[in-house]
Structures are given as structure tokens and as C-alpha cells.
Fold:
Amino acid sequence: MLEIQDLQVSYGQIKAIKGISLSVPDKSIVTLIGANGAGKTTLLRTISGLIKSKSGSIKIAGEEITSCPAHEIVKRGIAQSPEGRMIFSNLTVQENLKMGAYLRKDHANISKDLDYVFNIFPRLKERISQAGGTLSGGEQQMLAIGRSLMSKPRLLLLDEPSLGIAPILVRTIFEKIVEINKNLGVTVLLVEQNARMALAIAHRGYVIETGKIVLEGEARDLAENEEVKKAYLGSG
Amino acid sequence: MKPQFTFLLVFAALAALSFTMGAVDPYYLTVIIFIGINITMATSLNLINGFTGQFSLGHAGFMGVGAYIAAIISTYLTTHGMSSDGVSGILVLAASLLGGGLFAALTGLAVGIPSLRLKGDYLAIVTLGFNEIIRVIIQNVDFKIAGTHYVGGARGFAVPQLSTFLWVYGIALVVVYFVENVIHSTYGRGFLAVRDDEVAAEAMGINSTRFKVKAFVIGAFFAGIGGGLFAHYIQYITPDNFTFLKSIEIVVMVILGGMGSTYGVILAAIILTILPEALREFSDYRMIIYSLLLIILMISRPQGLFGNASIKKFLAKWKTGTATN
Structure:
């Protein structure tokens, strides 16, 4: 589904991503774990076109998207649920969700998908006409994920869905991610600091450190890896 | 009630009201006309500043462009065989306003494309500069066609009187109707999304630059028409009518009304047009009291008179409120 070859990204003189290659197979969940400042968010934002890359290539289902602007990339079936959620705080929950379907022409199916989102996140339905900014952190995260689903993506980019959320809600949200992946067949690239949770639901994982991939493999194996345990799982 | 129906109803009411305007004292009529023009100006600026979140300080510049282009067209037409009375007068004004609006929209496009990469304060400064450029250009233009002076530089430009109550309020109604309907459409939510979070809007597939430019062009178009109406009412325009102080006056209406609330902005346009007139008896202290009132209003209602509320939201809340009770 997603193929990245030798991608490099810089902020001015500072190299944030120093040649990353990774692949996300169709219908899988792949996680990217790493500490603060490792370049995880930069990588996601480069994929979704919010940041321009310096060199390298990004392909979605074989199609080159490296130099597409963000709004073009959404058309290619990539949806991002950005870090810090980035809800439209003055729009209602329903309006937020409809924004996700902004580029879609099949208006008949939009309300069906809206129902699907309300089905997996019933809390959003209770808050349907409330302004996005008045939701709790966890609800905003649900809204951000729901909103990105509304564009009917092939690939969902999730940036730190556990950030700033009550632990009990983190579990719910991760369960929903698995559900979305299984039921809708949406491929997921999940960026997380909460490595334990991420590795528990992912098929494959990559460990990123200061702009480079230092380790990759089956999520199960990574969770058992001594170095990963020491650095990211807080044990060993 | 269907919005089209409301539109027609209000228009009919305005048309009926326009027959009574002959009996109104000319001074009061002028205030009423200025209220109507200010509603057009403030509502169109609200699309840029309130709904799309781009801080423009150049609205009087677009107004000036529209005023002068419209005045050039009407002066040319009336000195070349068209009468300013009756049907012919209506055609002259319609052509002038359209020309002024379109030219202002083009100017909006020319200013918007390079400057909308800028944000917040930077954009405000650029638009302020644009406003001054327009004023200085007008100040230095003067030409004659067939013995008639056009533009007239700093001296000013005499314009035939064509704007009437119905024209001014009819157009204010069109602008309000247009902006309200665009903003509440699926397409128009793009403006609100750009305002709330540009990055998230891009991530939804919205070309945020295009939306910002669109808001600018539409806002400039209506400001140009507002300028045309203004010119054809006061009959004599000078570059001093369109200084950045005028821009700030309109910005204050938008902020006071509540950024992004059409009805709040209309209310603010009414209040802020009447207030300086009502304070005339205080003569020298007038502007001090005016400024003081603004400060008090801003402290007591920082979100504006109406805040972010709209009639639709209010009705929706009221409906759900009665449903649960």
C-alpha cells in the first residue's frame, strides 16, 4: 500500500529525517515507535504532504505522491488524524465529521459512513451538535479518527492517538483502531510513544531514532526484543 | 421557512419601506443609507476576517477601487447620452456597481495571491499598505474625456446621484443572504475549517490558499459594490473617503459584532453608524466618548455582541431544548 524509499526531510539546516525506507503492506497495521524528536510526526506529515521532502520517494499503491500538495494526497485515499488532534473547535461534532468527507462526491453514502462512525464511537453521537472545542481530550481523539475515516481512506495515518488521554480511553481507542482495520480493511500507519500498546495491536513495527530506522520486524518480535524493552517498554 | 422565501419577504418589506423614504428628513435618510452601506461593507469583511480568519485591514481600499471605477462608468455613460433618470438610471447604476465590484474583485485577486501566504499581523500590515497604495494612486490620477474631469486626484470626483434606499438595502440583503448561505453550505464550511485550523483543513483535502483567496475576492467584490453605492449617494468622492481609518472602522464593526456572526456584525454596523451621529451634541468630546464606549464594549463582551452565535445555531439549541424538556 505505502512504499517509502530513502526519504530525507530537513527543517532549514536541521535534518529531521535522514534517509528512511519503509513499507506498509495492504490491510495491515504498521507502527512506528520512537522517542520525542525522533522524527515520527515529521515522517507522517511528509507522507500527507504537509511538509515537503528533500529527496526520496513516497508511493501509494504504486503511484508516486512525493511532491503532491496535501489536498491532492487526500484524494489519493490517505487520511491523517494529526497529532494534538486539530479539531475544528468552532464547528460542531457533526460538521467536523462532514469536513472529513469534504472531497467526496457520493453524498448518498456519506450519511451511511456517518452512522458507522457513530456506531464505533457512540460518545460522538451523544455530542453531535456540540462544538468540537468543548469535547474532552479523548472525545476529540475519537472525533479526529472518525473525521479521518469520513474521507473513506485506503490508508489511515494516526499520529499519537494516545497523547494526553486517560489510560482507560487509550485502550478503547486502540480497540477501535483494530476494529477499523479489520472491518473496513483500512491500512493503518500508527505513530506512537506508547510502544507497548502500539506493538500489541500492530502486525509490523519500525523503531525510529533521530531520523533513522534502527530496528524493524514483526510487532510480536519487537515487543520481545531486549533493546526495545529497555528503551521503550520500561523493563529489562 | 425556506431562505429564498425569507429573502423575498424581506425584499418586499424593503420595497414597501422605500416608498416612505421621501418623507424622511434628508439628514436621517443619509444616516439610514450609510447604515445600509456599512452593513454591506462589514458583512463582506466578515467573510474574510470573521469566517476565514484572515486579518485584512484593507477593506476601504477595495471600497475605494469600486467607488472610483463605478463613478467613472456612470459619469462616462451619463455624459454619453444615457439619462440618469428612470430605467436608464437604473441601468447606469447597475452597470457601474457591477463594473466597480468586478474591478475590486480583480484587485482582491491581485493582492490576495501573493499576500495570503502571510498570516495574522503580517497580512494585516500588507493589506494596510495596499489600502494606502490605492489611496495614493487615486490622489495622482486625473484625466479628461470630452471635457469632463474623471477621478480628479486630491480635488475629488463629482458623481451623479443614483443610489436609493432600495438599492442600498437591496444589495445589503443580497450580501447577507449570500454570505449566510455560503457559510452554511457544505462547500462553505471550508472557510470555517481554514479559520479553525489550517493544517487540519489541508489534511481534510481543502486547498486552504484557494479558500483564502476566494474569501478575499468575494469580500472585495462586495466592498467594491458598497463603494459604488457610497459614491453614487454622496455625489462627491475624494481619496480621503477611503483611508485606512475607514478600514479600521469596518474592522471594528466586525470585531464588535463578533467575528463570524453575520447578525452581530449587522447590529454593530447599525450601532457604530448611529453612535457618532448621536454623540454630535458633545461636539469636541464626541470621539473620546465613542472610543470609550468601544473600550467598554470590548471589555464587557470580548467575544463581540453576538460572539460566535448565529440565528440557526440559536434555533437548533432552542429546538433540542424544547425536545428534551
